[in-house]
Design a protein that fits this description.
Pfam families: Ank_2. Helix content is 54%, strand content 0%. It has eight helices and no strands. It is globular and about 45 Å long.
Length: 149
């Protein structure tokens, strides 16, 4: 079941939210995701049964182009709090990208919202702990520090 953080969501918003999550999950190009979000940017907060937002799903897929487009839209509509949203496991989109070893998406998400780097998930793991477990190198971490300080 899909959830929406908006109370009193109309049936059309529920359908659009489901369409948005489906587009992200199926790896549709950023154009389809952006089309839906441009119609109602607040749909970025819609979650699937495990609490993943569209940004979690995009981060898991690791498509930098789509992630960059979604982050751009998040900034445009000042919805950056979605970068800190945690799913039912406590993972932010940054946790998800790091755990899946998507280096460039991890960099993008950290640059967009550095505070997400300090959040712990349900297993008390930070995105950086997950990145280390996933095999990020010392050079990768150095790039994070040098590139975004």
């Amino acid at each position: 079941m899909m959830n929406s953080s908006r109370s009193g969501s109309s049936d059309s918003n529920i359908l659009l939210g489901a369409e948005l999550l489906s587009a992200a999950r199926e790896g549709c190009g950023g154009d389809e995701i952006l089309r839906i979000l441009e119609g109602d940017p607040t749909l970025i907060h819609v979650t699937d049964p495990v609490g993943d937002t569209t940004l979690h799903i995009v981060a898991r897929a690791g498509n930098l182009e789509v992630a960059n487009q979604v982050v751009g839209l998040v900034r445009k509509y000042e919805l950056t709090e979605v970068l800190m949203e945690q799913n039912l496991q406590g993972d932010t989109p940054l946790h998800v990208a790091a755990a899946n070893r998507h280096k460039h998406v991890t960099h993008l998400l950290y640059k967009a919202e550095r505070r997400a780097g300090s959040l712990l998930n349900e297993d008390e793991a930070s995105p950086w702990g997950l990145a280390a477990e996933a095999g990020f190198s010392l050079e990768d971490f150095t790039e994070f520090i040098q590139g975004y300080t």
